[in-house]
Amino acid sequence: MPWTNDQGQQQGTCVHCGNCDIGCQVKAKNTLDLNYIPWAEKHGAEVRALHLVKCITPEQGGYRVDFDDIRSGTRIAGSASARIVIVAASSLGSTELLFRCRDEHQTLPSVSRFLGHNWSSNGDFLTPAVYPKRISPTQGPTITCAIDFLDGAKGPRFFVEDGGFPNLLGNFLKDRIAQHHLFWKELADRLTLDDDPLANVMPWFGQAMDAADGRLYLGAAPFIPWRTELKLDWEVERSEAAVQGLIDMHKELSHATGGVPWVPPTWTIFKNLVTPHPLGGCNMGVTAENGVVNHLGEVFNYPNLYVADGAIVPRAIGLNPSRTIAALAERIAEKIVA
Predict the structure, then answer these.
(1) CATH at residue 331
(2) Strand bridging mode 62-69 / 201-208
(3) What is the DSSP string of 154-223?
(4) Which of 250, 229, 267, 251 is nearest to 121 (CA)?
């Protein structure tokens, strides 16, 4: 049944479609377009979609923000000025913007040299397990339960969750398997070939307390050396035990529930990770020597310039970080108003 939330937006109730990760078509998921953004618009905020911020420059009484408006399909330069500027472009976006302002445009030359340091993948990992029975991971919410090992009782600290796949992925696999390509045929032998090719696959999710010792920086783009792009310098050594502890628990839980886990070679061979929860880059600190922003998210050496997103989280938290990020952002907004 549709209902109206506190921000005046119509929402629906969960129909177990499994599409939490790619967009809930019945609006049962609390996303920014259903809460914070319409609430802000009711209080006078103007949302300008498809505007790419290029640079932030101090000026009398505040800052000028230069951007490209791409709504027409071409880049049209523009700018806006404000006394207070809040950057919220995520761990990667906020960090890259401050890097470009400091090192490329040199409009914010006094941004801390700590910028980019202590980046974390939040120890994210997914271990699929194949079962002899129907699991149906494309039905129901993406995550429904968890086991907390953050107390370190198992040595490494981590948080285990059950997982799900969007039905889009199942449809994609069904199409590829039907084409009888060699790779997909081999994969099909592991899966249940009925209306849902992922029906017998359980994706175990989780986050581990990694070392948070990655470093973001601007480096030359491949084949275009006169351009720079955001790059990551990350080594596995100090994070390997935590991530492997999470994987070992995934394997133990898979076997205990009758499944056969499959740890992807991206980890077993290359020790590479993929993260949906990047954290850090503009870390909170006590001074500019050990952070980029203070505890209120205000950039050191630049009054009224704030960062309010996952970029300011100074370490891995071993949990899905959305509520932590929202709490930090609300605290920053409250202190600015005060």
Answers:
(1) 3.50.50.60
(2) unpaired
(3) TSS-EEEE-----HHHHHHHHHHHHTT-HHHHHHHTTS--SS-TTTTEEEEEEEE-----BEEEEEEETT
(4) 267
| Pick from 104, 72, 118, 41: nearest CA to 313 | 118
User: In terms of pTM, does the model score above 0.85?
Assistant: yes
- Encoding tokens for residue 213? 């010792």
**What span, in angstroms and rounded, lies between the C-alpha atoms of 204 and 91?**
25
Mean pLDDT by 10 residues, the chain (338 residues): 93 91 92 95 95 97 97 97 97 98 98 98 96 88 94 94 85 72 61 72 96 97 91 96 97 97 94 95 98 98 98 96 96 88
Domain identity same for 148 and 250 = yes
Number of domains the chain contains: 3
Strand 215-221, strand 201-208: pairing: unpaired
The residue whose two tokens read 């390509």 is: 181
Asked if residue 229 belongs to a domain, the reply is: no
